[in-house]
Amino acid sequence: RLRVVVLISGRGSNLQSLLDAAAGGGLPVDIRAVISNRPGVQGLERARAAGVEAVTLDHRAYAGREDFDAALIAAIDRHEPGLVVLAGFMRILTPAFCAHYAGRLLNIHPSLLPKFRGVHTHERALAEGETEHGASIHFVTAELDGGPVFLQARVPVLPGDDAGTLAARVLEQEHRLYPLAIRWFAEGRVRQDGDRVRFDGALLDAPLPL
Ligand code: GAR
Asked: Which residues form the active site (predicted)?
C-alpha cells in the first residue's frame, strides 16, 4: 500500500475525510503520520483518534525556512512515503523541499486555480463578483499554488453569500475531491509530467471536473 504523510496547520477536516476514506476501504493507502507546524491544533487530535502518529514541528523554533524545511524533510522521510499530502498546510515551502518531493507532493487549494492563488480566496471571489467558485487539487512545484492542476470541483456563488457560507459550500466539495485524487494517485492513474499531468497515460489539457 502507498505510504502517505499528511501535513496540516489547523482544523484538519480534509485530513478527516482522508482518514475516514482510508478506514472505510475507499482509499487504498496507509496514512503513516500527520505533521503540524502549529501545536495543539484539532487535526492532531483527529490523527490520534484514528490511531495515526501525530507530530508537531513548530516552525517558530527554527531560524528560517531552510532550517524548518530540512527538519520537516527528516520528519517526513522517516516514514518513507510514496506521497506527501498538504491538507490545509499554511506554510510556504522552499524550492529545495518542493524538488525533494517532486511528483509525489499534492495540495488542495480553495479556489478554481489559476484564479485566486494565496490566502483569503473566498473573500476575494466575492469581492470580484464571481458567479462560480470551487477547489482544486494540484501537484506542488516551487511556484506558490502554481503547480499543475488535475481535478476541480465547482460550486455556485449564491445571492447573500458571505465568506463563511461560500467556504462551507466549497469545503463540502473538498472532502470529496481529495480522497478521489489520492485514490487515483495510489492506483497509478495520475502522475505529474513536468508542468502537466497524465491521467490514464494521456496528458490533460484541462483539470478533470469532479
Ligand atoms: C481548506 O479549505 C484548504 O483548502 C485550505 O485550508 C482549509 C483547511 O481546512 N488550504 C489552503 O488555503 C492552502 N493554501 P481543514 O484544516 O479543515 O482541512
From this structure: 109 (proton donor)
Indicate the SS3 state at residue 12: coil
* Nine cell digits for residue 66: 531552510
pLDDT score for 164: 98
Q: Give the dihedral sign, CA 11/81/118/94.
A: positive
Work out whether the CA dihedral 185, 26, 154, 99 comes out positive or negative: negative
87 Cβ below 6 A of ligand 1: yes
Residue (of 173, 171, 181) closest to 208 by Cα position? 181
How many Å apart are CA 2 and CA 187, to the nearest integer?
A: 9
Angle, helices 42-49/13-23, rounded to nearest 10 degrees: 10
| Residue of the CA atom closest to atom 6 of ligand 1 | 88
Give the pLDDT confidence of 126-177 residue by residue, as tens digits: 999 999 999 999 999 999 999 999 999 999 999 999 999 999 999 999 999 9
Q: Is the ipTM of this complex over 0.90?
A: yes
Expressed in angstroms, the distance from the first to the final Cα of the chain is 25
Report the binding-site residues.
12-14, 65, 90-93, 107
Q: Which residues lie across from 198 on neighbouring strands?
A: 191, 203
**Cα–Cα distance for residue pair 134/114, rounded to 1 Å:** 11
With a 6 Å cutoff on the Cβ, whether 42 touches ligand 1 is: no
**64: three-class secondary structure by DSSP:** coil
Q: Can you tell me which atom of ligand 1 is nearest the CA of 11? A: 16
